[in-house]
Amino acid sequence: LRAAGRSPRPLFSPQAILAAQRRGEDVETSKKWAAGQNKQHFITKNTAKLDRETEELHHDRVPLEVGKVIQQGRQSKGMTQKDLATKINEKPQVIADYESGRAIPNNQVMGKIERAIGKLRKDTSEIMTPFQTCPGV
């Protein structure tokens, strides 16, 4: 009886990959996407629908008035962007994006910000109406 041949095993080092390529073996490489990152929030808009649209080819952003309301509410509580981000378990960059109007609206994040600063949809005469969720997503 013969010993079983070498089974294919993952090659991790660049030297092992180059050696396998020199031997003429098939080498499959794949890059991990978002490895080691905590990806919690996804864009709820259907990107295929955006591709089909011809007029507007971008996601809606948070209005600048909302960013100002978030900023004023945060400052009235004496919090920095980092303090607010820590309180709602988000990154400080998320708060900066919402305040500058660069963020794509997310109901979860907006709800957390509302609870933390006690503003937005309640006190500002409905400046932030609830966002529409895409059906079937």
UniProtKB/TrEMBL annotation:
Protein name from the UniProt record: EDF1 factor
Listed SUPFAM superfamilies: lambda repressor-like DNA-binding domains
Protein keywords: DNA-binding, Transcription, Transcription regulation
Annotated gene: Edf1
GO cellular component terms given for this protein: nucleus
Any GO MF annotation of the entry: DNA binding
Domain HTH cro/C1-type positions: 70-127
rRNA processing keyword on record: no
Organism: Todus mexicanus
Top-rank taxon: Eukaryota
Main location: nucleus
Cellular location(s): Nucleus
